[in-house]
Design brief:
heterodimer, A: mainly beta, seven-stranded mixed beta sheet, 11 strands, about 0% helix, B: mainly beta, 13 strands, globular
Amino acid sequence: QVQLVQSGAEVKKPGASVLVSCKTSGYNFTTSGISWVRQAPGQGLEWMGWISVYTGNRNYAEQTQGRVTLTTDTSSTTAYMELRSLRSDDTAVYYCARTDYRSGWYYFDFWGQGTLVTVSP
Amino acid sequence: DIVMTQSPDSLAVSLGERATINCKSSQSVFHRSSNKNYLAWYQQKPGQPPKLLIYWASTRESGVPDRFSGSGSGTDFTLTINSLQAEDVAVYYCQQYYSTPFFGQGTKLEIK
């Protein structure tokens, strides 16, 4: 069965960086895309960006562009999201989600369990 | 960005009754070349990730009970839950993927 398993919770200080991993299984990783979506405490869902495992293409949301980098490792079928220069308003649960390889503009059919990133002095 | 606005923000429905959630986009999400509406619905229960219910505005995801249905076209969409069950208590989100993905603010569904 399709599974996306994310790394554990992180606590970071403002200005630091965080790397969240998303280990996938149960499907052909190389012909997929992975999007990242975050959810601040008690808030809604915000799309952050997409990477096509197949083509290497990437799209980033304007809100975090310049601070976020998406990568994949096909040998371990794992996707990564790095967010730099952390601020208090980056405190959120970060989700990876499977999507289409051709475009970041698509729906998300399987999701990771989420990783809580807390930014605190 | 195509902004999504849901209504109501919350609603309470009796068990066995129908729940209706609306979603309006700031621009049409209908793609003429594919003849499809680029609109999805998700269910999120506390402490869980979102779960895909509906895509292409009306296509039910595999395994989703048929009491869930999606309708609408262009800028106005509806998620209908017939014969509400206790396990349907959740927050529901619509999402457009016609352009940069954008979610509605969510609708909290409770039991009356």
